[in-house]
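#onboarding

Welcome to the new folks! Below is a worked example of what a typical request in this channel looks like: someone posts a single protein sequence, and someone else replies with the predicted structure as tokens. Don't worry about understanding the tokens yet, we'll cover that in week two.

Example request:
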Amino acid sequence: MTGYPLVASTWDGAELAAMQAVIASGNHTMGEQVRAFEEQFARLVGSRYCVMVNSGSSANLLAVAALFYRGERPLRRGDEVIVPAVSWSTSYFPLHQYGLRIKFVDIDERTLNYDLGALESALSERTRLVLAVNLLGNPNDFGALEAMLRGRDIVMIEDSCESLGAKFDGRQAGTFGALGTYSAFYSHHISTMEGGMVVTADEELHHILLSLRAHGWTRNLPKRNRVCADKSDDPFEESFRFVLPGYNLRPLELCGAIGLEQLKKLPGFIRVRRDNALKFAALMRRYDGLRMQQETGESSWFGFSLLLEEGAALSRAALLEHLAQDGIETRPIVSGNFAEQEVVRRWLDTSVHGTLRNAERISRAGFFVGNHPYPLDRELELLRGALDRAFGRAVGRAAGR
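Example response:
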């Protein structure tokens, strides 16, 4: 392998063998492998329930939808939801699709999660939902968030699609809200080809998720459930009984089987990612003009974000050109300031609380490089050489640092 890629495969023969076993079985639709994966995933993150779906984006859609169909204090169209200004597109789109009024709040340019002061001042009598996005593996300060929301009629959900394995006060990110979502896309901490997960400790929400995931029918619900009257014992009557306006977001058995193998490796993946982060941080101390993301709790370090300091000796474009010459792949920090995206101006019902100064700066001066579940000594040495050239240092000279 040459260069420094953004993403890398985490598969080996175990995943291929698991796939072959599913193919040979002839059982390809969501079944026992998916159920086993859900049970093991819930146990791993410390949640009561897990529902697997076909993508992290679908997980976000399902989590938002579920809050509209619960019995007590359901969300309603027109309710206000507070979101951070930096995240992925499908963190926001389900909120729009369910008619919520989106209020953007600035981020902290060090952690890349909420600016906590801005968030607290943004809360209003209309606020019914707060979306906490754990960005690039970094958990939010949930002690502060829980204190801020205590006693208010506001529900919190977590988007942890980039942050599987992150912890705050020893607890897994994704389990602090009423619902938490994760992604198992190729570039994320585990990969099931495509895939996503929703976790919750709430039995009613779990049952709603099960129905919404598969057509809104009752087939996957227990006989006694929190969505509808007790199911009939006659499968002919129950097979096509629809009780919620659902979707088809089901994963394949292949995804469940691959996921079971990936979960065995996940603790090692996270350990190596965190070791890489220590090496990356040591390297970054050489460069006065660059700042990396500040860890909150225990980050699972999806990637390594960098922000050019104000007054840096070179522009972002010039720096990225130096990196590209050595095959070092880069990308923006997620989608930058999402409030500036064309789709927001044209289609979404949004407002901005205060200013988005930090999010705007991230868009102008930020980028990130990859992290992987294998040691990055070679890649970091390549990065060091490119940064030394970019910042005018002689290779190998660290000026005492």
